[in-house]
Amino acid sequence: METTKEVPAVITSSGNDNRIFVPVELTVGDRKVGAQALLDSGATNSFINSHFVKKHNIPVQKTSSPIKITNADGSGNHD
């Protein structure tokens, strides 16, 4: 059984922009990669930044069809 350690979330604020970042550790093969994840209680899916994926050599799989991503304001998202 693998144990986990509790790490407190870091809450940051910039003007009216309140965000909650949670420290996470990703297991990639036999490596562990630490990161800060943005907690978005309104998100309908989970996402990872493509630059982070490339930097840490995280394997990905293409989907059979593209997934359209929109921001909360309805605008399109791009890389």
Short description:
The protein has 79 residues and is mainly beta. It has one helix spanning 50-55, and strands at 10-14, 17-28, 31-39.
Describe what this molecule looks like in 3D.
- The protein is flat.
- 8% of the residues lie in helices and 33% in strands.
- β2 (17-28) and β3 (31-39) form a beta hairpin.
- With 79 residues, the protein is mainly β.
- It contains one helix and three strands.
- The longest helix is centred in the middle third of the chain and has 6 residues, at 50-55.
- Strands 1-2-3 form a three-stranded antiparallel β-sheet, with no helix packed on it.
What descriptive keywords fit this protein?
flat; single chain
Morphology call: flat
Structural class based on helices, strands and sheet pairing: mainly beta
What is the share of helical residues?
under 10%
N to C succession of SSEs: EEEH
Distance between the termini: 38 Å
> In DSSP terms, counting alpha (H) and pi (I) runs of 4 or more, how many helices?
1
Mean of pLDDT? 80
Poorly predicted runs:
none
Count of beta strands: 3
